[in-house]
Design a protein that fits this description.
The complex is a heterotetramer, with two copies of chain A (328 residues) and two copies of chain B (323 residues). Chain A is α/β, with parallel strands linked by helices and 328 residues long. Chain A contains twelve helices and five strands. Classes of the chains: A alpha/beta (328), B alpha/beta (323). The structure holds thiamine diphosphate (TPP) (2 copies) and magnesium ion (2 copies). One thiamine diphosphate sits at the interface of chains C and B.
């Protein structure tokens, strides 16, 4: 695949942006500065960047409970995201949503979701809407290996196939649910296989190779834009953190985590590719540093934001109907 | 004015709204035929892009509606029998109802979810249910359930034009009701939150829903001959609820009877009695009474089905107790 | 495949029993003697008989809304079934269930179901129970082509595969839902393909050839009994009646119905096979007649049964708690 | 007697019942670890055949339970957060609850469906809900929701030994509560339908559920210093409901306050007020009051979450109004 160096450097930067965002979120969650559940995708950057960084602004995406990266890289502002994670009034969703309900509709981001699999029927509906409006935008529908066993995924894939909708199903296969391994959850771990059953082309890709992901996502996007229907990408990857920051993680062998981290890290790997193409180590280090600074600054901003006024508790339930607050 | 049965009045309402606004579309199972014929042949006029027969996948039907709404369309999904809402309850409760709020008001979801409900023709336990209590409990939803043919089409107009998710319950028995409805493309919206006083009266306030509204009007008429003057109210929309009209009536009569087809325990009728007891306690002269279905699934066998849901004599008995 | 003539004649008889049961149900429904919805499976006899007639009494089955045949041939008494369809006190389920809720637990019949796809997770659970108890019984899980797109089917198949449960998924592919054709409902009409996605062997079989069905079901049953896990059978067939007796049926070409009825009828076809093996036409006609008489007699019995007393309306909601009846 | 926190008390109860009866097994997502640790490591003692980690498929979890129950096993499925009941509502409502009835009493389904519910730690709109109103409305189900640590394990024993489907709601905040429970293998069943009077009083009847029971007892104790004698009742089981105890209390006090974490509209608390208004109207001296969550989804932000569900001052205000 041909890709110019600027694009490649940008991909590298985006991977770091995601990682720096997530690492800081994890650190600050542990420090008690953020609430709720925080599921971070450290280790999964190639699978996110390689797909979502090809999206147009007018394209759409859904995201899972582990969706900060998708939200960030589809264009949401980091500072608003941190403010959301901190429950602040100026957060992306006014602090009402938190990590599992982060949306930015102007950017085509239809939200992370606290219900596994629930994004898929909705993403399919967005694709239906695009087709209805005769646009050539596309929708990205993310889900994990674990939730691929939810009924809604099946219904959405089948209907997308039947109606030839412009949607790309992206399965981030990090090989585990919360604790249960994929090998226990399904007799056939070759998830791309399922897509064929719906007449949808499926590809299994090394999800830690950003260029491979980019290439296969490109094919899928093209197909969708041309009105040729949905595609399915299974991206094999790994997460370094426990399921949710702070939870125990006894079900994955320590060595397995170590191995993925040290020998298969998507950023490291891509850094080596870039260095082989004469990018200097300092350049890469500078990028890393810039993203760490960017996120720290965004976080600092967020922490200075006010918490919402309690009247915000009962706004926006309806568009044209008021809900009553408390009397004391 | 045209006199039509509800099936075709609703169909005509859908037509009108689809003609009026290109963003309006129908999505559901077997709509081209229409199990109750409400949508029959509309695809011939509007094309299969706007009358979408889906695979048999209720989650996908609702997902289609929600997703399309987020990109500016106005979906009118149908779940073939209300009982099947269980198959897409997550989409209804955790997604559609909450999305606007969770996302800080970034979107409105102008979805009208049509669902035929209630008993009719011995359809048994999984095709006969009244589900309003489940839906009125969910913040973010509006719930229409009209027992008054005259207003049902106009309520559908309002539902489709409403920016928020509206659950539109259609009692299957009422498809055969007829009413004068507006001329073609002239069906006017009927506002939400305004109850219909089907019969004025000063002795007892009787609130009924769905197919029981007509029955209760008939019973009230008959009781009038015995000198009992019963006010019969059809709330038309269960949320927003016209508490004004109901409270005023109770202030006048001091007596409340609620008749619905629901299983009594945990029914919407309980919510109504409870708010009246809380907000108009001193107006009540007697204990309010609810009449509803037994707390059983709906049995298939005709005499059992008939016995399970409120019968005329149950309603009369309740009226006598309030007298 | 080897099969002795007695077995073959019995299969022929069972096909006729199912047809005669269904024809009479349809006729009497139209005559106003039966209530509710009545979905009959006339035309689908081979797909039912070829599978369920291999079941042991201790095996289990679920059935769909179009499930009279399965219920009858798994061993329920026709007269009790008619009584159920007529809402009588002595019906299979005391008249409480009707056509869509017909069960006979002693015979391992877990019920027809009014909710599409709902039988599958339950059947999977029965298979789990069998495995738990270390028995070698198996479960048959029926569903139609249309409802194969329900989420629960996906969840059940995947879990059955993951846990290697003794279950046979039987998809009666009559090519239509109520009115919508399979070709519109799915981009890939090869439904057996889906099973592979779950690591389940799938076979597409001529569902109107009772011997072919018998053979493939036999393989699946063997596998399940030996603890080797689930199988999937897609049985291509056709129904002659409208979706539900009395409904309009404008979406299937008249010629298509005619063609299936006249040239591919499963009973006719099997009759020809038998005649080629020197079974006399009179023998076959006698069998047909016997089943017609059997069903008529059963129906007559049923129509003489009493309707349930209204106190039956509130029995059996709970096992150990009474529900109150009415006071007038 | 052993003093334990609820997490481990419930775990110990499951152990006891699994030891007692080989037919008892656990099925759900990630049970070997246990999101709230209630089931942690039980597979080490009972094997993975009896502590079944399923794929992430709630319909399959419930199907597994229902199917296994029909062949004589005693399943204890878990839905990880009560909010996800929406993903298997058909299995709960149209299958599990109705099967015995529809099939003419041919089977009993001794299923105990455990579901952690309620708000805790800013889990937001899809992980914080109170769902008792949905479940108590369904004929065929029993619903346990204890706010009293002392009885919770015994109620679980009863649930597992009960022949019918039981919904067992566990408020997440109560996992940290502790209580004296019976010695190993000596946890006695606590009967269904018998409320616990947590505090006797003669001035006001306060019925609370879940995490609000303890809060209300504390508030009542504090109010006692002001000369107000409040009776606090934890129903323990919402169905069957101990109306005897509640009605007797209302007869004594003439005043009813119901405090729950539910969205108020259509809440279970409404059902309670409604039956008291119907059955003990003349005993009521004042309008009954319900305190509940606002009719909004649960917001994530800490001050909003805190504001949405009843706060001490809301409860005190209601008490003052009843005084
Ligand atoms: C419907 C539903 N079931 C269960 C959960 C609890 N849960 C949250 S994340 C998770 C594991 C998801 O695994 P996977 O889909 O592989 O995504 P990953 O966490 O690996 O990114 C589970 C079981 C949920 N949020 N929603
Ligand atoms: C959950 C649910 N959705 C929809 C229906 C309505 N319905 C009943 S039968 C049917 C068609 C089923 O098609 P298929 O599965 O192919 O079975 P067939 O009728 O062809 O035997 C539909 C849509 C239902 N009963 N349950
Ligand atoms: Mg995963
Ligand atoms: Mg079919």
């Amino acid at each position: 695949m041909e890709m110019n160096k600027d694009t490649m450097l940008d991909l590298y930067r985006q991977m770091w942006r995601m990682r720096s965002f997530e690492e800081l979120a994890a650190t600050e969650f542990k420090a008690g500065k953020l609430q709720g559940f925080v599921h971070v995708g450290v280790g999964e950057e190639a699978s996110t960047v390689g797909v979502i960084c090809q999206a147009r602004l007018t394209d759409y995406t859904t995201a899972t409970h582990r969706g900060h990266g998708v939200v960030l890289l589809k264009g949401a502002e980091a500072k608003l995201m941190y403010a959301e994670l901190g429950g602040r009034a100026t957060g992306l969703c006014k602090g009402r949503g938190g990590s599992m309900h982060m949306a930015d509709l102007e950017k085509g981001i239809l939200g992370t979701n606290g219900i596994l699999g629930a994004g898929a029927p909705i993403a399919m509906g967005v694709a239906l809407g695009i087709k209805y409006k005769k646009l050539d935008d596309v929708v990205f529908c993310y889900f994990g290996d674990g939730q691929s066993n939810e009924g809604g995924i099946h219904e959405a894939m089948n209907m997308a196939g039947a109606l030839k909708l412009p949607i790309i199903f992206v399965c981030t296969n990090n090989q585990y649910g919360m604790w249960t391994p994929l090998t226990k959850a399904s007799a056939n771990v070759d998830l791309a296989k399922r897509a064929e059953g719906y007449g949808i082309p499926g590809a299994a890709v090394d999800g830690n190779d950003v260029l491979a992901v980019w290439e296969s996502a490109g094919v899928a996007i093209d197909r969708a834009r041309k009105g040729e229907g949905p595609s399915f990408l299974e991206l094999k990857t790994y997460r370094y953190y426990p399921h949710s920051v702070g939870l125990p993680d006894p079900w994955r062998p320590k060595e397995e985590i170590e191995e993925w981290r040290t020998t298969r890290d998507p950023i490291d790997r891509f850094g080596k590719v870039l260095m082989a193409q004469d990018v200097k180590q300092e350049t890469l280090e500078a990028i890393e540093k810039e993203t760490v600074d960017e996120m720290q600054e965004a976080f600092n901003w967020a922490m200075q934001q006010p918490f919402p006024d309690v009247t915000q508790a009962y706004q926006d339930v309806y568009t044209n109907l008021a809900v009553e607050g408390r009397t004391v | 004015m045209r006199n039509m049965n509800m099936t075709f009045a609703l169909r005509d309402t859908l037509r009108q709204e689809m003609k009026r606004d290109e963003r309006v579309f129908l999505v559901g199972e077997d709509l081209r035929q229409g199990t109750f014929r409400v949508t029959v042949d509309l695809h011939k006029e509007f094309g299969e892009e706007r009358v979408i027969d889906t695979p048999i996948s209720e989650k996908a039907v609702m997902g289609a509606a929600i997703g399309a709404a987020t990109v500016g369309l106005i979906p009118v999904p149908e779940i073939m029998f209300a009982d099947f809402f269980t198959c897409c309850f997550d989409e209804i409760m955790n997604q559609m109802a909450k999305m606007r709020y969770m996302f800080g008001g970034q979107c409105s979801l102008p979805i009208t979810l049509r669902m035929p409900c209630g008993i009719s023709r011995q359809a048994a336990a999984q095709h006969s249910q009244s589900i309003e209590a489940f839906l009125t409990h969910i913040p973010g939803l509006k719930v229409v359930y009209s027992g008054t043919a005259k207003y049902t089409p106009g309520l559908l107009v309002s539902a489709i034009r409403d920016p928020d998710p509206v659950i539109f319950l259609e009692h299957k028995k009422l498809y055969r009701d007829s009413a004068d409805i507006g001329d073609e493309d002239q069906i006017e919206p009927v506002p939400f939150g305004k109850a219909c006083v089907r019969r004025e009266g000063k002795d007892i306030t009787l609130v009924a829903t769905g197919a029981y509204v007509n029955d209760c009007v008939k019973i009230a008429d008959a009781m009038a001959e015995q000198g009992l003057d019963i006010e019969v109210i059809d709330p038309l929309t269960l949320f927003p609820l016209d508490t004004d009209t109901i409270y005023k009536s109770v202030e006048k009569t001091g007596k409340l009877l609620v008749v619905t087809e629901e299983n009594l325990r945990g029914a919407w009728s309980g919510e109504l009695v409870s708010i009246v007891a809380q907000d108009r306690f001193s107006a009540l002269k007697k204990a309010p009474i609810r009449v509803g279905a037994l707390d059983t699934p709906i049995a298939f066998s005709p005499p059992l089905e008939e016995y399970i849901v409120p019968r005329e004599k149950d309603i009369v008995q309740a009226i006598m107790a309030l007298k």
